[in-house]
Amino acid sequence: MDSYISTREAAEKWEVSERRISQYCAEGRIPGAQRFGKSWAIPADAEKPKDPRRASSEPLTDRILKNVNLMPLMNTAFEPGRCREAAQSMAAGPQRDIATAEYHYFSGRPEQAAKEAEPYLTDSDMGAQLSACLIYAYASLSVGQIQRAKFALGELNASLAAAAEQSPQLRAAAAFIASTGAVLLHLPLPKEMPDTESFLPLLPAGLRAFALYVQAHYLYLKEEYGRSAGIVEATLAMGAERYPIPAIYLHLVAVMDYMSLKQPDRAQAHLLSAWDIARPDDLIEGFGEHHGLLGAMLEAVIKPKWPKDFKRIIDITYRFSSGWRRIHNPITGHDVADELTTTEFAVAMLAVRGWTNQEIAQHLHISVNTVKSHISEAMRKLNAATRKELKQYMLK
Fold first, then answer.
1. Are 263 and 215 in a shared domain?
2. What is the DSSP annotation of 131-144?
3. Do 225 and 257 touch, CB atoms closer than 8 A?
4. Which of 43, 68, 69, 265 meets the CB 3.0–4.6 Å disulfide criterion with 32?
5. Is 261 exposed, middle or buried (0-12, 13-18, 19+ CB in 10 A)?
6. Residues 253 and 227 in one domain
7. How far is CA 249 from the centre of its chain?
């Protein structure tokens, strides 16, 4: 009769956590392991699974980069001003098509991005399919096609579940895309999400940088601003600036963190760094997506010097936020205001975070009376009697 040990016994034997043992079993990395209810029976003579990062004599980077169609432009290092050139230089077919869709999405052209991504929504190439679903979801949201966006988000979650029985690399790809879709829409993470530490090392450098942005954004939502900023600073220091798209988003979440910590000078430095990277290629979508979280920094820094660009960013903000609320509010049950102007919303965000009228006025270079007027108008539109009541309509 075969001899089995429990997950606890295996954990002690191999000097890892019981949770890690269960993960090994779920991934099929322990031959002969059998599931009983919520636990596992493990063959007594089973060997500890090897680290998938060391399981092959083939270099990790080579094994990872075979999946070149997973957000290829995001994963490409290029000099600012050469984004389109980088996309066009890729191999014809899925890689170039997905990269072109990325370029059009990040430069604020969601209609083109959706059209280019749609043919790959059911593609047999997992990287292309996952990338297409993410791009299509966000692009559809931006053009008001909410049912299409919901469909694509549903496909992402289904792909994550389907990847559970696949290779660690495919699980990493699916987990990366699913977490990106959920966190950036402020939605609950899928139940089948693996630990970040289990898929992060399997991603190539550019996608790893963006995954760390997603992790920093998640910590920001948990109001762990210092930890979030620390991840950003460390990721940038380790070379993420080489990858323009992840770098832009990393800098933007740093702005969010430092404004929440009332350190506007550091926030401004990160905003200008993001702008220097984005402007040569017109990669302005991220600024519009994050507007409500940037603490009026766009109004204070970008609007005075680049008014035409600021107007385009605000157009993106209105377009994106409309679709975002139609996804976010029904799913989370938390209503976020949609009746305020972007300036009223930005001022109200600072007000509910404890900024005084004087501090807001100094930050925006406007009078205290103008600040009071914006806050009063926001409260009137939302029928809020106090700043505490106003807070329920603001983003985290």
1. yes
2. HHHHHHHHHHHHTT
3. yes
4. 43
5. middle
6. yes
7. 8
Domain contains 219: yes
Mean pLDDT by 10 residues, the chain (396 residues): 80 83 77 78 85 43 53 94 94 93 96 95 87 92 86 80 71 82 73 71 90 91 92 95 96 95 94 96 94 89 95 90 67 57 81 84 84 85 79 67
Among 119, 131, 142, residue whose Cα is nearest residue 76: 131
Pairing of strands 39-43, 4-6: antiparallel
Is residue 53 situated within a structural domain?
no
> If you ran DSSP here, which 8-state letter would residue 167 be given?
-
Between CA 71 and CA 184 the distance in angstroms is 16
Q: What is the pLDDT of residues 34-50, one digit of tens each?
A: 877 778 888 888 888 87
**Same domain? 96 vs 192:** yes
Structural domains counted in the chain? 3
Domain co-membership, 85 together with 195: yes
Determine whether 197 is exposed, middle or buried from the number of CB atoms within 10 Å of its CB (0-12, 13-18, 19+). Answer: exposed
What distance in Å separates the CA atoms of residue 20 and residue 43, rounded to the nearest whole number?
Answer: 16
Residue 187: inside a domain: yes
Position 191 scores a pLDDT of: 63
Distance between CA atoms of residues 144 and 326, nearest Å: 9
Selection from 23, 19, 17, 21 nearest residue 4 by Cα? 21
Q: Which tokens go with 174? A: 């699916």
* CB 370, CB 361: distance < 8 Å: yes
Residues 24 and 47 sit within 8 Å (Cβ to Cβ)? no
Answer yes or no: do 237 and 111 share one domain.
no
Report yes or no on 196 lying in a domain: yes
First CA to last CA across the chain, in angstroms?
57
Report the alpha-carbon distance of residue 371 to residue 374 in Å, rounded: 5
Tokens read off for 228:
């979030």
Number of Cβ atoms within 10 Å of the Cβ of 33? 20
Task: Residue 22: give the domain boundaries.
Answer: 4-43
- Which residues are 86's β-sheet partners? none
Q: CA–CA separation, 216 vs 198, rounded Å?
A: 17
Query: What dihedral do alpha carbons 140, 141, 144, 148 form, nearest 10°?
Result: 50
Q: Quote the CA–CA distance of 348 and 321 in Å, as a whole number.
A: 16
**pLDDT confidence of residue 348:** 83
Q: What φ, ψ does residue 197 adopt, rounded to 5°?
A: -65, -20
Give yes or no: residues 93 and 161 share one domain. yes
